[in-house]
Amino acid sequence: MPTILVIDDNPAVATALDVLFSLHDLQTLYADSPQAGLELLGREDIALVIQDMNFHADTTSGEEGIALFKKIRTHYPDLPVILLTAWTHLEAAVELVKAGAADYLAKPWDDSKLLITVNNLLELSETRQQAAQAHAQQRQLRSSLEREFDLRGTIYAAPASEAALRLACQVARADIPVLITGPNGAGKERYAEILHYNSHVAGGPFIAVNCGALPSELIEAELFGADAGAYTGANKPRDGKFEAADGGTLFLDEIGTLPLAGQVKLLRVLETGRFQRLGSNRERSVKVRIVSATNADLPALIAEGKFREDLYYRLNGIELRIPALAQRPADILPLARAFLPLGKRLSSDAERTLQRYPWPGNVRELRNVMQRAVLLAQSNLIAASDLNLPQLQPSVTPANDEPDRATIEAALARAGGVVAQAAAELGLSRQALYRRMDRLGIARS
């Protein structure tokens, strides 16, 4: 049962409020002076304070109430305070509301209005406490994550990013291949490094190869090596990436571009740990942790006959999906600030522009934009114009033109599913957006 502290020099006020609140499952404590009220606040679990503005019969200035409010706000900054005021010091009460008081009510008060105000404030206070507790727990969990694992300096704030990091750290020590999926520029190689540096082969090499950047005729030699004379220009033997990664991790980026012939040989190595250099009959063996990545839809490529199903299941011991930057908007500003050199900072209009932009190129695009902005900015303060981003289409539709399904879904995607943020972008209240989502069949998630 929430406890309300009434601080008033008139016992009749306390009695009237006690009777009113007791009928609505609210407990009341009473203090007849500011000092007594502060002492009760130090001893009891108080959910809300109702305080008078004067505590002596011969005072009408409201100065005592102002002083009390300031002390409460100093020691209990999140505690809701309702001021009971007479018309003679209404102006002082209004100023205190501007300074952080929850509300004020004139004497004599209206019981129904007072109850509505109290219940609203108690509900809001409980929500804030729950949010504060959740944030504190989140900070503890993140602190623990950063203490226990090498995150390779990853900047993150969004829950989606934290979930991906936790999964990466959880599976890093398992002797199982990992397939990292997600759009280009989302940071898949960084996650591959996290998998390596938190694994049992962290002391070994981390070798990355971009399968999409290699000519098809050189892929076999790049992966498995070649003996001298194996192909034109091969004047001496060369180690392949598998040999270079022996005892460590081999990261195969853009694995979906690997030709079928290369897929066959890769599958054999994964199954046996053995391979032959190009132009050689001698088998070699290696022990390598395989991490692969793709932005392609591998099941669709399998259906088209462009990717081997057996290789897919060999690579996909566990899938680690990296969300697009637009799906983790809380990461945008921390990443943008991290890309700035010391002394440079973002203006408020630049921050708003960064948060509204959809980032089709993900983190890579954001890094490039910030590097360009640093060069274009005329001072240490980076303005929206320095970002040189394409002009966004207005997201608020005309008064008689309802936002359509695509507009709402795009706003939700940019807000990472946070309805309140999407509603603000669309110029709607949260409930108004919910009504439109229900009408259009957009799931609440």
What's the quick description here?
This protein is α/β, with parallel strands linked by helices. It has helices at 11-22, 34-43, 63-75, 90-98, 111-148, 159-172, 188-197, 219-224, 241-244, 260-272, 298-303, 309-315, 332-338, 348-356, 362-376, 384-387, 405-414, 419-426, 430-440, and strands at residues 3-7, 27-31, 48-52, 81-85, 103-106, 178-181, 206-210, 249-253, 274-276, 283-285, 289-294, 318-321, 345-346, 381-382. Helix content is 46%, strand content 13%.
Produce the secondary structure layout:
Blueprint: E1 3-7, H1 11-22, E2 27-31, H2 34-43, E3 48-52, H3 63-75, E4 81-85, H4 90-98, E5 103-106, H5 111-148, H6 159-172, E6 178-181, H7 188-197, E7 206-210, H8 219-224, H9 241-244, E8 249-253, H10 260-272, E9 274-276, E10 283-285, E11 289-294, H11 298-303, H12 309-315, E12 318-321, H13 332-338, E13 345-346, H14 348-356, H15 362-376, E14 381-382, H16 384-387, H17 405-414, H18 419-426, H19 430-440
Parallel strand pairs: 1-2, 1-3, 3-4, 4-5, 6-11, 6-12, 7-8, 8-11, 13-14
Antiparallel strand pairs: 9-10
Count of extended strands = 14
Stretches with pLDDT under 50, minimum 5 residues: 393-401
CATH fold descriptor of the largest domain: Rossmann fold
Total tally of structural domains: 4
Give the CATH class of the largest domain. Answer: Alpha Beta
In CATH, the homologous superfamily of the largest domain goes by the name P-loop containing nucleotide triphosphate hydrolases
In round numbers, the mean pLDDT is 87
Provide the spatial order of strands within the biggest beta sheet.
Answer: 2-1-3-4-5
Helix content: 40-55%
Roughly how many Å is the radius of gyration?
32 Å
CATH hierarchy: architecture of the largest domain: 3-Layer(aba) Sandwich
Q: In angstroms, what separates the terminal alpha carbons?
A: 32 Å
